[in-house]
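An instance noted here:
***
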Amino acid sequence: FDDPDQPVRRTFYVPTGRWYDLDDDAEYAGPGYHTADVPLERMLVLVREGAAVLRVDVDASVGSAADLATRPWTLHSYGSAPAPGEFVAFDGSRVSAGELSLVRHAV
């Protein structure tokens, strides 16, 4: 492969609604096509307004999902929708949103 070190320009379709880039919070309104420069080491992932996404930092020491059970999780809430109140953990136990760090993203 002879890929350049420069970001690649991507054109993508966004369905109706407001969407956010999971990595940098760039906002896209749909429906319609948009274009963004995306580095080769990153995949463009969009999150719809109103979504709540649990995230955990993953590094080279993670070999399986079990390795994530003791790491701190962060609840990311996108847009104006309220965050869910409860989640189910890997071991089947219930975790309230109040036990997680909360990050609200732009409206």
In short: The chain has a mean pLDDT of 82.
